[in-house]
């Protein structure tokens, strides 16, 4: 595993990734930014197009480790972008999308094209957009939409840090051209020294943390169990993190949480993938916090339209000193209860829950530890909830215990 720090949509993210993990997979599976679509996985169709340091790139053929220290923008970050707003409106007016699968990459590429070449009188949009494929529209509406936005003469393309994007003077220019001087600047670029790259300190690599799981009980359809683990951090530091529902969600595998409302209501989404079943639970919840007792309780419920599964649950955790009154380590004790209905209910059986929650709990504890050791302002990407590795890990663990028991009986 390699530790990388990437600024994604304006937020610094520190995570451990495998050297061969593609940026598209990292964005979708670890950061849950699923607006970046994966099509051909060969860099041909353009569905996975994102911005890297202000220039569009194919995220399906870009390694995540190659983006260490870079600034990445996905389609989710363009909500407040004026040029993208005009492009979205034009796409809708010109009927430039049908199934919508190519649309995120198409919009990012179209916006980049208009920013760089809208002023060119002989702009060939069909050629410039040939790197983005669409299987639905026949391209006529797409060309019309881009022509509409390009005809509005958008402002000269300048990044937030003052660098101009596109042909001469290029990204190394120290002073961006003005709209009036853009034509002259294109004709006579002035060389300039490239700006220094600002680096961000990395968090320490994640380390294993033992999680103790108590007996799993099922009563009236509700599955209940306890978890406990110790973190090598002072209780006040751990509580400062775990008293914030958003920060806790950032460490929980698969969970994305919106900012709490004034009445402490929560909304969010949990992505689950176990074996052949994949689900995304959207729902709402609430939390109650006791700072004096270092205790938090979070409740929630949600449903997945695709699988028809429904879930509700609650988790209560309490923090205590783990070393007899010193502040060197903190004990985290959790009580977790949940109900599952629908296809995913098969994973609610107590014989499977214990193994699954132990592995999920270990990922959560590692993320908490990594977040506490990360630089100020950095975020740690949560692991995916489920996946082949989680299910296979449970199965291999069961097989290993069965073999050990069999050998023990035979000796």
TrEMBL record:
Origin: domain of life: Bacteria
Region named Disordered: 167-201
Record keywords: 2Fe-2S, Iron, Iron-sulfur, Metal-binding, Oxidoreductase
Biased composition (Low complexity): 171-201
TM helices/strands, residue ranges: none
Domain 2Fe-2S ferredoxin-type: 2-78
Pfam families, sorted: COXG, Fer2, Fer2_2
Gene Ontology MF terms: 2 iron, 2 sulfur cluster binding; metal ion binding; oxidoreductase activity
Cited SUPFAM superfamilies: 2Fe-2S ferredoxin-like, Bet v1-like, CO dehydrogenase ISP C-domain like
PANTHER family: OXIDOREDUCTASE WITH IRON-SULFUR SUBUNIT (PTHR44379), XANTHINE DEHYDROGENASE IRON-SULFUR-BINDING SUBUNIT XDHC-RELATED (PTHR44379:SF8)
Record's protein name: 2Fe-2S ferredoxin-type domain-containing protein
Lineage: Bacteria, Pseudomonadati, Pseudomonadota, Alphaproteobacteria, Hyphomicrobiales
